[in-house]
Protein backbone atom coordinates (compact mmCIF):
# COMPACT_ATOMS: atom_id res chain seq x y z
CA UNK A 1 0.00 0.00 0.00
CA UNK A 2 1.44 3.40 -0.96
CA UNK A 3 1.54 6.47 1.29
CA UNK A 4 -0.77 8.38 -1.02
CA UNK A 5 -4.09 9.33 0.54
CA UNK A 6 -5.84 8.84 -2.79
CA UNK A 7 -4.65 5.87 -4.81
CA UNK A 8 -5.36 5.99 -8.53
CA UNK A 9 -5.68 3.07 -10.93
CA UNK A 10 -6.35 3.94 -14.54
CA UNK A 11 -7.50 1.42 -17.09
CA UNK A 12 -8.44 2.80 -20.52
CA UNK A 13 -10.29 5.82 -19.15
CA UNK A 14 -11.91 3.93 -16.27
CA UNK A 15 -10.35 5.46 -13.17
CA UNK A 16 -10.55 3.91 -9.74
CA UNK A 17 -9.89 6.14 -6.74
CA UNK A 18 -9.20 4.54 -3.36
CA UNK A 19 -9.28 6.64 -0.22
CA UNK A 20 -6.31 5.32 1.67
CA UNK A 21 -6.50 5.93 5.44
CA UNK A 22 -7.55 2.48 6.62
CA UNK A 23 -6.31 3.03 10.20
CA UNK A 24 -8.86 5.85 10.57
CA UNK A 25 -11.48 3.92 8.56
CA UNK A 26 -10.76 6.33 5.67
CA UNK A 27 -12.15 9.34 7.55
CA UNK A 28 -12.00 12.53 5.50
CA UNK A 29 -9.54 15.05 6.87
CA UNK A 30 -8.39 18.18 5.08
CA UNK A 31 -5.33 16.41 3.63
CA UNK A 32 -7.50 13.68 2.06
CA UNK A 33 -9.89 16.29 0.69
CA UNK A 34 -7.03 18.37 -0.77
CA UNK A 35 -5.51 15.33 -2.49
CA UNK A 36 -8.90 14.21 -3.77
CA UNK A 37 -9.64 17.66 -5.16
CA UNK A 38 -6.29 17.79 -6.98
CA UNK A 39 -6.99 14.38 -8.54
CA UNK A 40 -10.46 15.49 -9.62
CA UNK A 41 -9.11 18.68 -11.21
CA UNK A 42 -6.85 16.46 -13.35
CA UNK A 43 -9.73 14.15 -14.26
CA UNK A 44 -11.93 17.09 -15.29
CA UNK A 45 -9.46 17.84 -18.11
CA UNK A 46 -9.52 14.35 -19.62
CA UNK A 47 -11.51 13.71 -22.80
CA UNK A 48 -10.82 9.98 -22.65
CA UNK A 49 -12.51 9.51 -19.27
CA UNK A 50 -15.25 6.82 -19.39
CA UNK A 51 -16.16 6.20 -15.74
CA UNK A 52 -14.87 6.80 -12.22
CA UNK A 53 -15.06 4.42 -9.27
CA UNK A 54 -14.49 5.58 -5.74
CA UNK A 55 -13.97 3.29 -2.77
CA UNK A 56 -12.24 2.98 0.58
CA UNK A 57 -9.11 1.07 1.43
CA UNK A 58 -9.51 -2.19 3.36
CA UNK A 59 -12.52 -4.40 3.90
CA UNK A 60 -14.09 -2.61 6.82
CA UNK A 61 -14.93 0.87 5.68
CA UNK A 62 -15.79 2.99 2.69
CA UNK A 63 -15.51 6.25 4.67
CA UNK A 64 -16.46 6.51 8.37
CA UNK A 65 -17.16 10.24 8.11
CA UNK A 66 -15.38 13.51 8.38
CA UNK A 67 -12.35 13.30 10.66
CA UNK A 68 -13.66 13.87 14.18
CA UNK A 69 -10.20 14.30 15.69
CA UNK A 70 -9.42 17.10 13.27
CA UNK A 71 -12.83 18.78 13.74
CA UNK A 72 -12.95 18.61 17.52
CA UNK A 73 -11.16 21.89 18.28
CA UNK A 74 -12.36 23.94 15.34
CA UNK A 75 -13.87 27.40 15.79
CA UNK A 76 -16.98 28.22 13.71
CA UNK A 77 -15.00 29.94 10.92
CA UNK A 78 -12.60 27.00 10.71
CA UNK A 79 -15.54 24.60 10.58
CA UNK A 80 -17.05 26.67 7.77
CA UNK A 81 -13.78 26.53 5.82
CA UNK A 82 -13.51 22.75 6.33
CA UNK A 83 -17.11 22.20 5.15
CA UNK A 84 -16.55 24.50 2.16
CA UNK A 85 -13.46 22.54 1.14
CA UNK A 86 -15.44 19.29 1.36
CA UNK A 87 -18.48 20.67 -0.47
CA UNK A 88 -16.30 21.99 -3.30
CA UNK A 89 -14.46 18.67 -3.62
CA UNK A 90 -17.63 16.58 -3.50
CA UNK A 91 -19.24 18.87 -6.09
CA UNK A 92 -16.28 18.28 -8.42
CA UNK A 93 -16.84 14.55 -8.09
CA UNK A 94 -20.56 14.95 -8.75
CA UNK A 95 -19.96 17.14 -11.81
CA UNK A 96 -17.50 14.84 -13.55
CA UNK A 97 -19.08 14.36 -16.97
CA UNK A 98 -18.99 10.55 -16.77
CA UNK A 99 -20.74 8.06 -14.48
CA UNK A 100 -19.26 8.04 -10.99
CA UNK A 101 -19.75 4.85 -9.00
CA UNK A 102 -19.35 4.57 -5.22
CA UNK A 103 -18.19 1.09 -4.24
CA UNK A 104 -19.34 1.04 -0.62
CA UNK A 105 -17.32 -1.68 1.09
CA UNK A 106 -18.27 -1.19 4.74
CA UNK A 107 -18.95 1.84 6.97
CA UNK A 108 -20.48 4.70 5.03
CA UNK A 109 -21.20 7.27 7.71
CA UNK A 110 -21.50 11.04 7.94
CA UNK A 111 -19.20 12.60 5.36
CA UNK A 112 -18.81 9.13 3.78
CA UNK A 113 -22.53 8.90 3.14
CA UNK A 114 -22.44 12.46 1.82
CA UNK A 115 -19.66 11.48 -0.59
CA UNK A 116 -21.65 8.47 -1.81
CA UNK A 117 -24.73 10.68 -2.28
CA UNK A 118 -22.83 12.74 -4.84
CA UNK A 119 -22.12 9.64 -6.94
CA UNK A 120 -24.38 8.53 -9.79
CA UNK A 121 -24.29 4.94 -8.69
CA UNK A 122 -23.80 3.36 -5.29
CA UNK A 123 -23.07 -0.36 -5.07
CA UNK A 124 -22.89 -1.64 -1.51
CA UNK A 125 -21.42 -4.82 -0.07
CA UNK A 126 -23.83 -6.67 2.20
CA UNK A 127 -21.81 -5.63 5.29
CA UNK A 128 -22.15 -1.90 4.54
CA UNK A 129 -23.59 0.35 7.22
CA UNK A 130 -25.01 3.77 6.38
CA UNK A 131 -25.99 6.73 8.48
CA UNK A 132 -25.75 10.42 9.22
CA UNK A 133 -24.74 10.19 12.89
CA UNK A 134 -23.65 13.82 13.23
CA UNK A 135 -26.33 14.71 15.82
CA UNK A 136 -24.73 12.13 18.13
CA UNK A 137 -21.65 14.36 18.03
CA UNK A 138 -23.57 17.59 18.56
CA UNK A 139 -23.44 18.79 14.95
CA UNK A 140 -25.47 18.47 11.75
CA UNK A 141 -24.26 16.97 8.46
CA UNK A 142 -21.94 19.52 6.88
CA UNK A 143 -20.87 17.90 3.60
CA UNK A 144 -24.25 18.16 1.84
CA UNK A 145 -26.25 15.49 3.68
CA UNK A 146 -29.18 17.69 4.68
CA UNK A 147 -29.69 18.60 1.01
CA UNK A 148 -28.68 15.60 -1.11
CA UNK A 149 -30.20 12.98 1.20
CA UNK A 150 -33.80 14.30 0.96
CA UNK A 151 -33.38 14.66 -2.79
CA UNK A 152 -32.31 10.98 -2.96
CA UNK A 153 -34.61 9.29 -0.44
CA UNK A 154 -37.35 11.88 0.20
CA UNK A 155 -37.65 14.34 3.09
CA UNK A 156 -39.38 11.98 5.56
CA UNK A 157 -36.66 9.34 5.50
CA UNK A 158 -33.91 11.98 5.35
CA UNK A 159 -35.33 13.68 8.44
CA UNK A 160 -35.53 10.31 10.19
CA UNK A 161 -31.84 9.65 9.50
CA UNK A 162 -30.44 13.12 10.20
CA UNK A 163 -32.40 13.69 13.41
CA UNK A 164 -32.00 10.24 14.99
CA UNK A 165 -28.48 9.57 13.73
CA UNK A 166 -29.46 5.89 13.49
CA UNK A 167 -27.48 3.53 11.32
CA UNK A 168 -29.07 1.36 8.66
CA UNK A 169 -27.83 -1.78 6.95
CA UNK A 170 -27.27 -2.25 3.23
CA UNK A 171 -30.69 -3.78 2.61
CA UNK A 172 -32.50 -0.88 4.22
CA UNK A 173 -30.30 1.48 2.19
CA UNK A 174 -31.43 -0.37 -0.94
CA UNK A 175 -35.09 -0.28 0.10
CA UNK A 176 -35.08 3.51 0.61
CA UNK A 177 -33.19 4.16 -2.63
CA UNK A 178 -29.91 5.25 -1.09
CA UNK A 179 -27.99 2.63 -3.08
CA UNK A 180 -28.62 0.96 -6.44
CA UNK A 181 -27.45 -2.57 -5.62
CA UNK A 182 -26.35 -4.73 -2.71
CA UNK A 183 -24.01 -7.63 -3.39
CA UNK A 184 -22.20 -10.11 -1.14
CA UNK A 185 -18.88 -8.60 -0.04
CA UNK A 186 -16.87 -11.26 -1.90
CA UNK A 187 -18.68 -10.33 -5.13
CA UNK A 188 -18.33 -6.55 -4.94
CA UNK A 189 -15.31 -6.33 -7.25
CA UNK A 190 -16.79 -8.69 -9.83
CA UNK A 191 -20.03 -6.74 -9.84
CA UNK A 192 -18.17 -3.45 -10.23
CA UNK A 193 -16.21 -4.85 -13.16
CA UNK A 194 -19.41 -5.98 -14.85
CA UNK A 195 -21.06 -2.60 -14.29
CA UNK A 196 -18.08 -0.72 -15.66
CA UNK A 197 -17.99 -2.99 -18.70
CA UNK A 198 -21.64 -2.21 -19.30
CA UNK A 199 -21.26 1.55 -18.82
CA UNK A 200 -18.10 1.87 -20.88
CA UNK A 201 -19.49 -0.28 -23.71
CA UNK A 202 -22.16 2.34 -24.45
CA UNK A 203 -21.69 5.39 -26.64
CA UNK A 204 -19.43 7.61 -24.50
CA UNK A 205 -20.94 10.90 -25.65
CA UNK A 206 -24.46 9.52 -25.18
CA UNK A 207 -23.61 8.44 -21.63
CA UNK A 208 -22.20 11.90 -20.87
CA UNK A 209 -25.31 13.50 -22.41
CA UNK A 210 -27.67 11.29 -20.40
CA UNK A 211 -25.87 12.20 -17.17
CA UNK A 212 -25.92 15.90 -18.03
CA UNK A 213 -29.64 15.82 -18.86
CA UNK A 214 -30.54 14.21 -15.54
CA UNK A 215 -28.22 16.38 -13.42
CA UNK A 216 -28.94 19.74 -15.03
CA UNK A 217 -32.64 18.99 -15.47
CA UNK A 218 -33.16 18.19 -11.78
CA UNK A 219 -32.52 21.84 -10.89
CA UNK A 220 -35.03 23.21 -13.44
CA UNK A 221 -38.79 23.32 -13.84
CA UNK A 222 -40.18 20.48 -15.98
CA UNK A 223 -40.69 22.45 -19.20
CA UNK A 224 -37.15 23.90 -19.11
CA UNK A 225 -35.74 20.48 -18.28
CA UNK A 226 -37.61 18.88 -21.19
CA UNK A 227 -36.26 21.58 -23.51
CA UNK A 228 -32.78 20.77 -22.24
CA UNK A 229 -33.36 17.10 -23.00
CA UNK A 230 -34.50 17.93 -26.54
CA UNK A 231 -31.38 20.04 -27.12
CA UNK A 232 -29.07 17.32 -25.83
CA UNK A 233 -30.97 14.66 -27.83
CA UNK A 234 -30.49 16.68 -31.01
CA UNK A 235 -26.77 17.09 -30.22
CA UNK A 236 -26.40 13.31 -30.36
CA UNK A 237 -27.16 13.49 -34.09
CA UNK A 238 -24.21 15.78 -34.77
CA UNK A 239 -21.48 13.15 -34.39
CA UNK A 240 -20.54 9.64 -35.51
CA UNK A 241 -21.81 7.86 -32.43
CA UNK A 242 -25.50 7.95 -33.32
CA UNK A 243 -24.78 6.88 -36.91
CA UNK A 244 -22.72 3.93 -35.70
CA UNK A 245 -25.25 2.92 -33.02
CA UNK A 246 -28.24 2.98 -35.34
CA UNK A 247 -26.39 1.48 -38.32
CA UNK A 248 -25.20 -1.38 -36.11
CA UNK A 249 -28.81 -2.01 -35.09
CA UNK A 250 -29.97 -2.11 -38.71
CA UNK A 251 -27.03 -4.34 -39.71
CA UNK A 252 -27.72 -6.64 -36.73
CA UNK A 253 -24.22 -6.28 -35.25
CA UNK A 254 -22.71 -4.79 -32.12
CA UNK A 255 -21.88 -1.08 -32.33
CA UNK A 256 -18.24 -0.13 -32.29
CA UNK A 257 -18.10 3.08 -30.27
N1 LIG B 1 -12.89 10.41 12.37
C1 LIG B 1 -11.68 10.13 12.89
N2 LIG B 1 -11.29 8.88 13.23
C2 LIG B 1 -12.19 7.89 13.06
C3 LIG B 1 -13.47 8.12 12.53
C4 LIG B 1 -13.81 9.46 12.15
N3 LIG B 1 -15.00 9.75 11.61
N4 LIG B 1 -14.12 6.95 12.49
C5 LIG B 1 -13.27 6.02 12.97
N5 LIG B 1 -12.10 6.58 13.32
C6 LIG B 1 -10.93 5.94 13.87
C7 LIG B 1 -11.13 5.58 15.34
O1 LIG B 1 -10.91 6.69 16.16
C8 LIG B 1 -10.10 4.48 15.52
O2 LIG B 1 -8.84 5.07 15.65
P1 LIG B 1 -7.79 4.51 16.76
O3 LIG B 1 -7.52 3.10 16.33
O4 LIG B 1 -6.61 5.40 16.62
O5 LIG B 1 -8.50 4.57 18.06
C9 LIG B 1 -10.13 3.76 14.16
O6 LIG B 1 -10.71 4.69 13.24
C10 LIG B 1 -10.97 2.52 14.16
O7 LIG B 1 -12.25 2.86 14.65
P2 LIG B 1 -12.97 2.09 15.86
O8 LIG B 1 -11.95 1.50 16.78
O9 LIG B 1 -13.98 3.02 16.44
O10 LIG B 1 -13.68 0.90 15.04
P3 LIG B 1 -15.03 0.15 15.45
O11 LIG B 1 -15.14 -0.98 14.50
O12 LIG B 1 -15.10 -0.12 16.89
O13 LIG B 1 -16.20 1.22 15.12
C11 LIG B 1 -17.33 2.87 13.80
C12 LIG B 1 -16.39 1.64 13.80
C13 LIG B 1 -18.74 2.47 14.25
C14 LIG B 1 -17.39 3.39 12.35
C15 LIG B 1 -16.77 3.96 14.74
O14 LIG B 1 -15.39 4.17 14.43
C16 LIG B 1 -17.46 5.29 14.63
O15 LIG B 1 -18.54 5.45 15.17
N6 LIG B 1 -16.85 6.24 13.92
C17 LIG B 1 -17.41 7.58 13.79
C18 LIG B 1 -18.55 7.61 12.81
C19 LIG B 1 -19.13 9.01 12.74
O16 LIG B 1 -19.65 9.53 13.72
N7 LIG B 1 -19.05 9.62 11.55
C20 LIG B 1 -19.56 10.98 11.34
C21 LIG B 1 -18.46 11.95 11.55
S1 LIG B 1 -19.03 13.61 11.61
C22 LIG B 1 -19.23 14.04 10.00
O17 LIG B 1 -19.01 13.28 9.08
C23 LIG B 1 -19.69 15.44 9.87
C24 LIG B 1 -20.00 15.92 8.51
O18 LIG B 1 -21.02 15.72 7.91
C25 LIG B 1 -19.06 16.81 7.94
Automatic annotation (TrEMBL):
Keywords from the named record: Lyase
Biological process, per Gene Ontology: fatty acid beta-oxidation
Coiled coil (UniProt feature): none
Keyword Lyase: yes
Molecular function via GO: hydro-lyase activity
Family: Belongs to the enoyl-CoA hydratase/isomerase family.
PANTHER family hit by this protein: ENOYL-COA HYDRATASE, MITOCHONDRIAL (PTHR11941:SF54), ENOYL-COA HYDRATASE-RELATED (PTHR11941)
Listed name of the protein: Enoyl-CoA hydratase
Phylogenetic lineage: Bacteria, Pseudomonadati, Pseudomonadota, Gammaproteobacteria, Oceanospirillales
Amino acid sequence: MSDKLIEIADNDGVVRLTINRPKALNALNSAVLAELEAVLVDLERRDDLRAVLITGSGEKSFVAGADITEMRDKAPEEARAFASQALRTIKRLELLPVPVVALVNGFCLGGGCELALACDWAVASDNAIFGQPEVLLGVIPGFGGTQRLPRRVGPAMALDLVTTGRKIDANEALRIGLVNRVVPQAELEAYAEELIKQLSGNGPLAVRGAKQAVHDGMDQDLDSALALETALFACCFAGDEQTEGMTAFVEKRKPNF
